[in-house]
Amino acid sequence: MARSYVREARRRTGPRRARIGLIVERLASEHPDAVIALRFRDEIELLVSVMLSAQTTDVTVNRVTERLFQKYRRPEDYLAVPLEELEQDVKPTGTFRQKAKNIRGAMAMLLQEHGGRVPTRLDELIRLPGVGRKTANVVAAERGATQGIVVDTHVRRLSQRLGLTREDDPAKIERDLQRIVPREDWARFPHLLIWHGRRVCIARSPHCEDCVLADLCPSSRI
Ligand code: SF4
Questions:
Q1: 199 Cα to the center of ligand 1, angstroms
Q2: Residues with CB under 6 A from ligand 1
Q3: Are the C-beta atoms of 36 and 188 separated by less than 8 Å?
Q4: Cα 134 to ligand 1 centroid, rounded to whole Å
Q5: Atom of ligand 1 nearest to the CA of 210
Q6: Whole-structure pTM value
Q7: Residues with catalytic annotation?
Q8: Can you list the alpha helix ranges (DSSP code H) found in 72-187?
Q9: How far apart are CA 169 and CA 105, in angstroms?
Q10: So what's the pLDDT on residue 166?
Q11: Can you list the residues of the chain whose pLDDT is less than 70?
């Protein structure tokens, strides 16, 4: 299905590179508030928030971290309590046993190998337990060290609908996006797609009639 999106995009709206500038420009003006929705005050809170956000909503994570970050302020704090206690503290975010174990593993590695700081290099971030490419990309970008493009469920869906990729695998989608999105837009581009995906290009029923990209989109229903 994604394959036909790309062909249709070329036929109706021209090559991807020619459209990307307009897509970024229009989404930036439509969603000037498109920034990360997670709440954090420092690099440790950023890392923990993003790790907790897997398979749940940012609203749930923010509700949990509001109390969590009162109790756990430094990497050592996560290692000072029994694992079961941390599990209970992150339970509402789901898959809490795995998340608690990964957070403790990541904090231990930060202390052992990075002096308690969160690294900004993607290859170092990805070595932390429970940190995949998406989490690493989010953390690096929020710390001003963007090295890739975050591909979450919204970015994947919109990139396919807009005919920017024919791939399904997040790593391959990221590679396609890196080829066409100007490097200076790598950090904000996913936020623009995420907020457009939440507000307009909804998964089940996209509001194409209200979409500023309708004339650029091969999947437009109008
Ligand atoms: S035109 Fe429709 S399918 Fe295309 S991006 Fe807009 S809402 Fe999504």
A1: 11
A2: 161-162, 200-201, 206-208, 211, 213-214, 217, 219-220
A3: no
A4: 24
A5: 7
A6: 0.89
A7: 134, 152
A8: 75-79, 83-90, 96-113, 122-126, 133-142, 153-161, 170-180
A9: 27
A10: 96
A11: 1-14
